Amino acid sequence: MSPKSIRVCLSPALLPFHELDDTIAVVIDIFRATSSMCYGLANGAQAIIPVEELDECLSYQSNGHLLAAERDGQVVTGFDFGNSPFSYTKEKVAGKTVVLTTTNGTRAIKRCAGASAVVIGSFLNISTLSNWLKTQPQHILLVCAGWKNHFNLEDTVFAGALVHRLKTRDMELDDAAYAAESLYLEARSDLPTYLGKASHSKRMQHLHIAQDIAFCLQEDQVSVIPILKGRELVRLTLPHLLQ
Amino acid sequence: MSPKSIRVCLSPALLPFHELDDTIAVVIDIFRATSSMCYGLANGAQAIIPVEELDECLSYQSNGHLLAAERDGQVVTGFDFGNSPFSYTKEKVAGKTVVLTTTNGTRAIKRCAGASAVVIGSFLNISTLSNWLKTQPQHILLVCAGWKNHFNLEDTVFAGALVHRLKTRDMELDDAAYAAESLYLEARSDLPTYLGKASHSKRMQHLHIAQDIAFCLQEDQVSVIPILKGRELVRLTLPHLLQ
């Protein structure tokens, strides 16, 4: 069994032009939302609730949840933390539910709601994710969260890494999938240098989060796949998960 | 003098997120609208009027203009011709005004109306265009017409060719400009093969227009730059045009 087609949506603003029926949507926001989601669920967070707005995030305050909010790369004042993966360690999140709003990633997740399934991708869970996707018969749509509706390099290069692992001779790729794979093949020998020219990396240099970037570019640190169930991201469980 | 920044808009649907102030917009629809516009004006067409809808195109019938309409890669029944460059020869268009509506290209032009200038790019006029752009101080936005709001390879690879010719050390590139240049550098040794995998090429194979594709991939066949003046595309004239 293998997916029928692989397409890449290069910006959340292009989602309205993509078919979501019979499709697994993989949401990608490498720096840093989807990397932190994978890390947090691997470290025992019970669930992560992605919300679009700060107000909605705050409305969960009385539930005893951890509240995480990032805007323009920084933790929003008054929140427990933002989207740095180092805030999603076992010590901080095990057994907890995290309510998270970010500039790009959480919004992209919300807009994929019509898909058969919405899962979360990052370099941290790439092998577990791609092995599972290979067992699924649906179409696959790789959704790059980008930056404020703009294309970005890091999400597209990761989408290309997935295309490279998943594609077969019979599978239909759209032009964006071909392009993403080309970019990945060029970048893979030295991801940090290639992505160093990305606008987001430059933005993040000002924020002194080089450690976060290096962390998010490591393959296979975790073996979980976050999946959207209702409004919560939880760990996808067996029998679906073949590792 | 050189442009301050080069950005690439990968789909007309992303134009609302791009700044057009103090910006020259270069509209790109390689297969085939912008190639044919360059060729038609080089062959003496007086003007080409891009319109969005078939009805609007038909409304020019009484003016004695040539009416050209393409939808889904084919000439629309009842129109003089579509967007094949071979319909824009000297014999057919010299001294005439052509009113043209296409699936992607003419719509992209309309949406750039807020820019300082809107010009037309194709491989056919790449050197003339890039030499002129180098003399301009404005920002440059390369607008890929794509296919029905989707990313496509051929327009992006051409955008990358322009980035490669125009970029300087001091100039700011967005992530899409870096990606487009990467794709161009990979594709340039054999454009027809690289673009053969593009969805549009596959669509066009069904239409038996391999000759059109080969024609549109030739560099420097003409030395005109179509520029939007009011509602008409006309030849950019000296002293602006340094060849």
CA radius of gyration of chain A is: 16 Å
Strand content of chain A: 15-25%
Mean pLDDT of chain A, as a whole number? 92
The greatest inter-chain interface is formed by: A-B, 28 and 28 residues
The secondary structure category of chain A is alpha/beta
CATH fold-level topology of chain A: putative 2-phosphosulfolactate phosphatase
Oligomer designation:
homodimer
How widely separated are the two ends of chain A? 16 Å
SSE string of chain A, helix = H, strand = E? Answer: EEHEHEEHEHEHEHEHHHHEE
Number of helices of chain A: 10
> Low-confidence segments of chain A, ≥5 residues, pLDDT <50?
none
CATH class of chain A: Alpha Beta
Structural write-up:
- The structure is a homodimer of 243-residue chains.
- Chain A has helices spanning 33-42, 54-58, 90-93, 105-111, 126-134, 153-166, 175-187, 191-196, 199-206, 210-216; strands spanning 5-9, 23-28, 47-50, 66-71, 74-75, 97-101, 117-121, 139-144, 172-173, 226-229, 232-235.
- Chain A is α/β, with parallel strands linked by helices.
- The first copy, chain A, has one domain (5-229): Alpha-Beta Complex (putative 2-phosphosulfolactate phosphatase), CATH 3.90.1560.10.
- In chain A, the strands form three sheets. In chain A, strands 7-2-8-1-9 form a five-stranded parallel β-sheet, sandwiched between helices. Chain A has a four-stranded mixed β-sheet with strand order 3-6-4-5. Chain A has a two-stranded antiparallel sheet with strand order 10-11.
- Chain A is globular.
- The two termini of chain A are 16 Å apart.
- Chain A binds chain B through residues 8, 10-11, 13-14, 16-17, 147-153, 156, 173-176, 178-179, 182-183, 186, 197-200, and chain B through 8, 10-11, 13-14, 16-17, 147-153, 156, 173-176, 178-179, 182-183, 186, 197-200.
